[in-house]
Design brief:
35% strand; four-stranded mixed sheet; alpha/beta; 203 residues
């Protein structure tokens, strides 16, 4: 997954397995300076084009260009919690933490992107990093220390009585690793690697 910035990108690559439940292992996290370098990282870790997702919040036209040229997907985080869609397996309407595929156009080429709840996937990440829940998010011994720093860039705070949201701990605190990891969990959920189970009564 790719978090686009003004003149660079932050990239997270992970390997997934479902042999013992959904489990992710970080392969790479770092700052990338050029589009060519993005493709080099993708090739190094053998990531299929359809498995690459770039954040569409900043300069969406540039992101759409990349997706049209390379066959990538795009993501856009929102404060909302859910999107109601039909669960084909259960044959009922369910509130998912992401949308169905949206379609944009770039020079006549269709580009697919998804909207998602950033807070939902940050909750899943926090639980996984604590070794709780069904999902495992494993970090290598030589994990980039910037990733660990970025995880501390936001905290879940009570903004009003009974309402909690993820917020920056200070203005412009680096949180790109956190955002990338949330996007990674979103992609895994859309792909069916991580199975979304709606809370009881939330259907």
């Amino acid at each position: 997954v790719i978090d686009k910035q003004q003149d660079h990108w932050w990239v997270l690559a992970c390997a997934w397995t479902t042999d013992t439940g959904p489990r992710s292992r970080m392969l790479y996290f770092g700052r990338v300076e050029t589009r060519d370098m993005l493709r080099q990282v993708q090739a190094r870790y053998l990531v299929a084009d359809a498995c690459v997702a770039q954040d569409r919040r900043f300069r969406p036209a540039d992101v759409d260009r990349d997706c049209a040229e390379f066959g990538w997907r795009a993501l856009r985080g929102f404060g909302r919690k859910s999107w109601t869609m039909r669960d084909e397996a259960a044959n009922m309407m369910v509130n998912f933490p992401h949308s169905d595929p949206r379609v944009a156009q770039f020079q006549g080429v269709e580009v697919f992107y998804y909207e998602f709840s950033g807070d939902y996937f940050k909750d899943i990440l926090a639980t996984a990093l604590e070794g709780k829940g069904d999902v495992r998010f494993e970090l290598p011994e030589d994990c980039n220390p910037l990733f660990l720093e970025h995880l501390k860039g936001e905290a879940k705070v009570e903004i009003r009585s009974g309402v909690w949201e993820w917020r920056e701990v200070k203005v412009n605190a680096p949180n790109h690793g956190l955002d990338c990891a949330a996007m990674m969990l979103c992609v895994a959920t859309i792909a069916g690697i991580v199975r979304f189970v709606p809370p009881k009564g939330d259907k």
